[in-house]
Amino acid sequence: MKPVYARNSINQYQLLLEQEFDNILVRYLMDEEGRVAMLMIPVHLRNDINLDKAIGLDSIVDIQFQGYPYASGWGVGRTERHGSRPTTKKSDYFDPDEIHLFFYKSHEVIKNSLSIKIKTILVNNLGFEIEHILSWHYGEQAVEVNTIFSNCSNKPITIEMISSFVLGGITPFCEGVASDTLNLHRIRSSWSAEGRHVKHSIEDMHLERSWLGISKQVERFGQIGTMPVRGYFPFIAAEDQTKEVFWGAQLAWAGSWQMEALRIDDALSISGGHADREFGHWTKTVQPGEKFVSPRAILSTVQGNIDDLAQSLVSVQKKYVPNTPSYESELPIIFNEFCSTWGDPTADKIKKMADSLKGKGIDYLVIDAGWYSEPDEGWGAGKGDWLPNLKRFPNGLKEVFDYIKKHKMVPGLWFEFENCHPGARNYDKKSNLLQKDGEILTVGTNRFLDMRKPSVHKFLNERVIQLLSDIEAGYIKIDYNNTTGIGVDGAESLGEGLRQHIEGVYTFLDKLREKCPDLVIENCSSGGHRLEPSMFEKTNMSSFSDAHETLSIPIIAANLHRVMLPRQNQVWAVLRPEDNLKRFAYILNSTFLGRMCISGDVDSLTDLQWQRVDESITFYKNVRNIIKEGYTERFGPIISSYIDINGWQIIKRVNEQENELMVIVHTFGGELPEMIEIPLPDKGNWILKNQFPNNIDKFIPGQNTLYCKLDENFEGYAGHFVLKKD
């Protein structure tokens, strides 16, 4: 066996192509056998690469075919990677005619006024072709990649694993194994606790290479089912502490996915894509002449911190934000009645709320769950037929919607149209439902419509799209409260059945947008279980949590700046007449971290409480451009508990284009410092323009510095600052 130190160093590989994308440098390298890898570094560090680092190239695409040999290194069961890159040279141990290795064929650089695209073609001896596509739009801080597999042979082939991205050579700035240098970052998620950032050293994760460099050290993680954010976000980052360089990726996929950190030699690699056969019970048979396209990934590298990296990745999402309806660009304010009626809406209750909200600056009034169910049955009963309950709405929904419109608000309605419950028309109609092992897939009492079926789309056209059209709805909240698990019948594997089902969901959402172009679409899934880029593209905004009235709301809202645009992040403030003004300020202050959404007992608030709400709405409207366009910095200690919360949090968001910024302060339990110093952009003097609440005295602005007073536990306040003009 050849030891690891016999591997090539970076300078021994052929440079195929080098391309700059503003602050990102991408190099395509090729070894003597034709395997192609991609190295990504910050542009200004191009001369800091350690050329003596011993690495074997990680192919830009990893793929594994059913029935073909797996790579050695004791990786089977932990990874399917490196079937196209064995740990040794091909001449040493195997016949290339028996291995599905892919080699370089060609590349093409395509430039226009908006973007640069690099297409790299790989081929193998079996008649298959892989197209690796990297694209970048001018002004963005990240690139997008995906993989297209083409079966150019005369027989079908079954894929067990194919990567969306592979990024290797980490870290190129340190000699050898870079001990005590590398960290892996991930973002966790659970119900009402989304976005928790976790960091572990490579050594703690057992990703240090073996002494001989032949054993695969692997960390594979992801999500299985139809809730893609139910444990982890589709996000990974590697950090070189010596250079303060981060490499990271996000996946855009609403089904099962995986990411991996893998080590054999001196370099770490990260990769990801659709969950493979081992992790997601997925295989895909590609017929002659057919193609398979992987989910899209977003990649970036920065010198800075985890927030700098995260926002570089998130920057790509801007161009995908739906541009309809046009008034959404102003980030209108939402009122959702769920925490008012708790699933028990009626015409009289909604009208009373509309009266209370008239003239308050609220733009959307959304009727949440329960509008279809019998009174006293609860909002879970009756889901699936989507017929308004006439006991709740004697004159139908249209009459109530017209009433809302007369009060100068856009009416909206809640649906969970992918599921059905007992008593619904489709509940026992097996042909319209997802199945597993030949039986209807049932979770609790919930069953899932098969979104691959034309009959299902016909039903939803009639009961969802037509209803929205008939009542002239301007807003839909789409919920999704269960997950299918590993997969469903109807394809060559359970995982492929699930993948096709997700494609069916996308198809219906596209049809919904086509038929109702001015409809505002909200993405919700028991809170934040679908907070990933592909769903952001299909919807205007997302509910990030069912936390509602918990004290952790501002923590979660701030967390999510790392994975999504604040302009698409709906943050709830639930108002109760028994709450004091301090509590009002705390929860209303949280809404400035994204899209303001109000719920609760608005028809029983006092004049003084309404005054505080009015102040918050005025402040929100003054800072909408900062929410919409800007970058975020977080200050404060790590918050370990979301239940017994201690510490403090300050979020600074800057819109440099407009020379304005806002600072959002929350204090929690425990001992607090008296004063916090926050650096401001080095442009001159900043002055306080607006603040919330209006009667606070918490900010002391100075040149390039802001001092924030922390007086009491569980307070919330915010300031809007502008650059002083001479």
Short description:
By secondary structure, the protein is α+β, with helices and mostly antiparallel strands. The chain has 13 helices and 41 strands.
Q: Keywords for this structure?
A:
Beta-galactosidase, Chain A, domain 5, alpha+beta, 41 strands, TIM Barrel, globular, 10-stranded antiparallel β-sheet, 3 domains, disordered N terminus, 8-stranded parallel β-barrel, Immunoglobulin-like, 726 residues
What does this structure look like?
The chain is an alpha+beta fold. The protein has three domains: 4-319, alpha-galactosidase from lactobacil brevis (Beta-galactosidase, Chain A, domain 5), CATH 2.70.98.60; 323-543, Aldolase class I (TIM Barrel); 632-723, Sandwich (Immunoglobulin-like). It is 17% helix and 32% strand. The chain is built from 13 helices and 41 strands. The strands form nine sheets. Strands 5, 6, 7, 8, 11, 12, 14, 15, 19 and 20 form a ten-stranded antiparallel beta sheet that branches. A hairpin with a 2-residue loop joins β27 and β28 (446-448). α5 (347-357) packs parallel to α6 (396-406) and α11 packs parallel to α12 (607-622). The termini are far apart. Residues 1-6 and 84-94 have low confidence and may be disordered.
